[in-house]
Amino acid sequence: MRAPRNPVSDAIAAHALVGRLDDLSQARGAGVDLNVGILLWPRFPLLSLGGLCDALRHAADRGDQSRQLRCVWTTIGPKNGSVESSCGVAVPVQSVFPPAGQFDYIVAIGGLLSDMDQVGKQYWTYLREAAESKVPLIGICTGSFVLARAGLMQDRVACVHGFHYEDYRRMFPQLRVVTHADYLIDGDRITCAGGISVIELAARLINLHCGPDRAAKVIHQMTVSRQGGSSFVERRRALGYFSVEDAAVRHAVLLMEENIEAPLTIAVIAKMTGTSVRQLERAFMAEMKASPNEFYRWMRLRYARWMLLNTSRKIADIAYECGFSDSAHFIRVFREACGVTPGKLRASRGGNQEE
How far apart are CA 115 and CA 77, in angstroms? Predict the structure, then answer.
């Protein structure tokens, strides 16, 4: 099951993760870009584990050899232990509570809420020690409940599936929660609704750590057909990937990608990337040969053009989804940039003309 995507859900504090990447890479040495430890709760959904591990597998190696080279993942737990999934398949523990600091992320994949407390104290201690060590924590499916039960979601917003929304509010009435999103990054806490939303989260993390080429491979290998609204997967098809050397520009581009429907101001993007507006403008001119505002508008128009040619959505809906206040403004800007109106572009591919 998946929750609808909110295009601004994970812009809250994604910048808190980016600054950690270079230090981790240097400390760990060349080769491994992304190292993930996984804690499984009783009766966890196998799809969540499979989606995460398969995304990492595709990013980890060239071709289809499935070697853990650029990405490494490890199930964590007690000695000689295994955890039974909700479908009855048991998954063995690979490592007995190793030092949390060796991982880029610790992932808690939650299971049935009735079984949440059916784990040893070491599980809870391990999560808290990881938090104290500043290791980002990810809660997948009811893993958000696990993090909240461990006392690790204070002053944080959790993303849960709509099916569990009332459960979260009942169990943790003092905590904030959203449901209309696939995942949400709130500083060094990340929560994900579960199901195929895991693939979108994994692609985002792989893009951050391993680069756009690895994320593109994941999207190609694991594309999931969607109906209705836009998704990270869909936007990857539309926008492609950008090879960007400057860390601030790379982060700014990610924020722009994630906030197309409700565009951020350049001042906000600069603040979230740890730069000033002037610094970001200079960096964009050097990398992209365009100002941040020009690049942002180009990105929104490129996405609009893709939807015009590849979907049957109404032009007014496309305008709003690409951050334009109304269809008239969108049509005017699109014609100035592309030399043709949205309706005529669609008609050129055999669609019905609409203005």
Answer: 16
Q: Region 11-17: what's the mean pLDDT?
A: 42
Higher pLDDT among residues 39 and 268, named by residue: 39
pLDDT for residue 242: 58
Instruction: State the Cα–Cα distance between residues 150 and 173, nearest whole angstrom.
Output: 15
Question: What's the pTM?
Answer: 0.61
Which are the contacts of 192, defined by CB distance < 8 A and separation ≥ 6?
138, 139, 140, 141, 143, 144, 159, 182, 183, 184, 198, 201
Contact 314, 343 (CB under 8 A): no
Q: Which residue has the higher pLDDT, 295 or 235?
A: 295
CB of 61 closer than 8 Å to CB of 70: yes
Nearest to 79 by CA among 62, 60, 98: 98
Which of 270, 256, 271, 266 lies closest to 323 in space, CA to CA?
Answer: 256
Partners of 106 in the beta sheet?
37, 137
